[in-house]
Amino acid sequence: MAQEHGLKRVAIAGLGPIGIKVMQALDAGIPGLRLSAVAVGDPGKPRPELERLKRKPHIVPVAELHGEADIVIECAPASALASIVRPFVSRGKTALVLSAGALLENWGLVEEARDKGGQIAVPTGALIGLDAVTAAAEGVIRSVRMVTRKPIKGLLGAPYVIEKGIDLESLREPTKIFDGTARAGAKGFPANVNVAAALSLAGIGPDKTMLEVWADPGADRNMHRIEVDSDSASFSMQIANVPSENPKTGRITPLSVIAYLRKMHAPLRVGT
Predict the structure, then answer these.
(1) Helix (H, G, I), strand (E, B), or coil: what is residue 58?
(2) Which residues are catalytic?
């Protein structure tokens, strides 16, 4: 059954800080939705957070999630994106994608969703002002630039940092370590700049959206500043996100997913 008692079934792929927070919100109750299944990297690992749920979801491999749910929330490493999303959109179902950077490298998923009647949704996440960018894109956007500043520990292990041999831990002052397109940034920092990928998809695309990445040894938050110039408005936005248990991810990211889920069946929906 696609639905049970009128409730759409939701699956979560990945139980890191984001997945756990979303899982708990679904268990507490979101109108019109029911948590039905989760997929985790190590099914044998003790999961006390699952034991505390009022209604325990099925724990299944990623390949079986599509049979358990109508909607999947991707909260996994970017490398797993296609294996999570394709089985849903190819069956006309919905996938909420947090690894927006990886979506740029797997654009065939969007084509498949179009062909099969599925949908890929990218929640606002740790970004601000996507509604304004989306609206401006209905006209002409002349330029979009995003400047990201992150604590050192939030950038450790990024492919670009390793490739360029950047010694982050030796930095004593804010240092710009990347300046290029959102597409190149998403490839070089797959766990760090999904916000830039989402911004590019809302606006003028990943090859025209420009990105700077700064490593800041004095920062304790993930900071993003966006500047947009268009024929309808020129605006700038800035947000400083408190990191979650995973320093690469802000605490606001799972809250954005929860807000999206609440909108799905809300009698009043605010925002584009």
Answers:
(1) strand
(2) 224
